Amino acid sequence: MLQGSAPGKLILLGEHAVVYGHRALASPVSLNTKVQLEPFAGATHLGDSSIQDERLKQALALALPAHGWRVQIQTDLPIGRGMGSSAALTIALLRAADSITGQRSSFDELHARGFPIEALFHGNPSGLDHAVSALGSAVVYRKEQPPLPIKMPPHQVVVLDTGHAGDTKKLVAGVALRRPKIGPSLKRLGELVEESLSVLTDPKALGLLMNEAQTHLEMIGVSTPKIAELVQLARGAGALGVKLSGAGGGGIVLALTPQGPEQVLAAAAQRGIGAFACTLGKH
Ligand code: MEV
C-alpha cells in the first residue's frame, strides 16, 4: 500500500509572535499521522479516518490526484489541541502523494506545497507547524526563512489537555484584531525565544522564560481560565516552566518536568485531567 506519515509538534516558545516575524522554537513529538492510499476505480475520496473535519475534502483535493484513490487517515495526535495535527496531516498527505510517483520531495518543496493545505485549517499560517513536521527535527523558525534545525537536549515534559479544541484560525485572527495594543507582548514573546537559545541546557532558566511567555500569552488574549487552572496545577506539582503551547483558546498546556513527570501526572489524574509525558528534542 502507498502511504505517507509525519509527526506532530510542540511549540516551546514563540507561538503567535512568529506570525509577526519573530522567531519561534519548536520540536517534533513522537505522535504521528499516517495516510494510506488504496487504488480505487473512481474519484479520490476519504475512506476510514480518525480525523473528521469538513476541510479534509479540500485538503485531499489539494494534495492528491482527483481520481484513483481511497484515502485512509489514522492519527495518534489529539485534534485541535495545538500539537500540529493539521500540519502532520498536510505533510503525511504530501508524502503519500509522492509515494504514487516514487518521488521524494525536498523539504523546500514539501513546505511550499504545504502552505495552501495548512491555510485551510489556519487562515494565515506562519509555516512553523508544517516545517517541524516535514523536518522532524527541533527548529528555530522565522516566517519566510529556511528553518534552522537545532540540537535540543531531550527535555522531559508533561502535556496536559484542557479537553477543548482551540480554533487556530479564529485565535490568530483575534490577535491580529488586538494589535497594535498588544504589540509589546508579541515583541517580548519573540525576545524570550532569543534568550532561550543560550539556556537550552538549563531547565531552570528555560522554565522561567516559559513562565514569562505564559503571562504574555494571557495578555494577548489566547489563554483561557481552564488553561490558567492547568498551569497552576502543574506549577503546584513542581513543574519548572508551564505555558500553553500552540494557538491556545483551549488545546494543551506544556509543563517542563526535568525532575520526572510523576508528580504532575499524579496531580492531573487526581483532578481527572488528561495528561501524558513525552520527550522534546527527540522524535
Ligand atoms: C499554532 O500552532 C502556532 C501559531 O503561531 C500559528 C502559526 O504559527 O501559524 C499560533
Layout of SSEs?
Layout: E1 2-13, E2 24-43, E3 45-49, H1 56-63, E4 67-75, H2 85-101, H3 107-122, H4 128-135, E5 139-141, E6 148-149, E7 156-161, H5 168-178, H6 183-196, H7 203-219, H8 225-236, E8 241-245, E9 252-256, H9 262-270, E10 275-279
Parallel strand pairs: 3-4
Antiparallel strand pairs: 1-2, 2-4, 2-5, 5-6, 7-9, 7-10, 8-9
Helix pairs in contact: 1-3, 2-3, 2-4, 3-4, 6-7
The structure holds (R)-mevalonate (MEV).
Walk me through this protein's architecture.
With 283 residues, this protein is an alpha+beta fold. It has two domains: 148 residues, Ribosomal Protein S5, domain 2; 126 residues, 2-Layer Sandwich (Alpha-Beta Plaits), CATH 3.30.70. It has nine helices and ten strands. The longest helix is centred in the N-terminal third of the chain and has 17 residues. The mean pLDDT is 95. Bound molecules: (R)-mevalonate. (R)-mevalonate binds next to helix 4 and helix 5.
